[in-house]
Amino acid sequence: MHYADFSRGYVIKLEPDEKLHETLLKFFKQKRFASAFFQGIGALKNVDIGAFSTEKNGYVNIPTEGEFELITAMGNISLVDGEPFAHTHVCLGNHRGQTYSGHLFEATVAITAEIFLIPIDIALLRKEDSKLNFKALDLPHHFVEH
């Protein structure tokens, strides 16, 4: 991984065979950010994605095979029980122009991944949702109309 910092964040270049989430979380820990948002493009393989099903109250796997263009990745890094957690959604394209999208569990960089990461100065926290089987953002303020 290589990176360049600038006034508002970081441009991160991942190398072939690096794990996307694993590498981002390692960088996040080393820099000691409170939380961050990111977006990216590149090429991935060994992609594990899914979609949340309210009917099943959990994630269902979306089968993928081969290498994919990472058309877009958008996500954030928050904390779950004090540990960094990457929440990422992706849109992928195969060599026939078919697209796949969903929640990214993990993927390996095929050629490169170019990530634009913006740290924020508050810690975003996640906790288990009492009704659904996932970790939701636990924001401190509730908007009340007057």
Topology of this structure?
Blueprint: E1 2-6, E2 9-14, H1 20-31, E3 35-53, E4 58-62, E5 67-80, E6 83-93, E7 99-120, E8 125-128, E9 135-137
Parallel strand pairs: 5-8
Antiparallel strand pairs: 1-2, 2-7, 3-4, 3-5, 3-7, 5-6, 6-7, 8-9
What does this structure look like?
The chain has one domain (2-126): 60s Ribosomal Protein L30, Chain: A. It is mainly beta and 146 residues long. It starts with a strand and ends in a 9-residue tail after the last strand. Strands 1, 2, 3, 4, 5, 6, 7, 8 and 9 form a nine-stranded mixed sheet that branches. The mean pLDDT is 93. The protein has one helix spanning 20-31, and strands at residues 2-6, 9-14, 35-53, 58-62, 67-80, 83-93, 99-120, 125-128, 135-137. It is built from one helix and nine strands; from the N terminus they run E-E-H-E-E-E-E-E-E-E. The chain is globular, with a radius of gyration of 16 Å. Strand 8 (125-128) and strand 9 form a beta hairpin. The longest helix has 12 residues, at 20-31.
